[in-house]
Amino acid sequence: MPARPQDQHAPTGVPPAPQPTAAPFLTLVEEPAYRDRLTEDWVIVGPVLVAGRTLDRVVVGPNGVFAVSLDADPRPALLAEDGLYRGSMRTTHQVKQALAAAFDLRRVLAEAGIDVFPYPVLVARGADGMLGRLRVVPPGCLASAVWSHPGRPLRRSERARVLAAVQHPATA
Q: Fewer Cβ atoms within 10 A, N terminus or C terminus of the chain?
């Protein structure tokens, strides 16, 4: 009997390998975006490699530049005056990572001759509010958080320069 390729639908006795899917935390921005839209004046870019670190999203619009980090932990978080909590444990990694990403983005933009402050934003399940200078928003609320932010207004030319800087390979 001649050999033939194995039929994909024929049972083999081995369970099929799980299909790779998008990282679940990326759905924090993409899925709710259908309900939470920004106008055409806004641009979302990402993920972006900034100073050797991956920044999940950079949002550029009329009232500023936002460095958006996505919290990969699926558990809901509670925002208190002194930090972000899950259960009774204070979570510091995600907060530090979001602040460091915004700092790195500011340094990269400064090297490109662009003087703007990228506002740090952390998208985390269950949390909403300010933690120092870090804005923490739940999934589906990113658009309302950035367009209502009282940031420094940016001209179209400034926005274009920021976008060119974050999309340029030199940010790697």
A: N
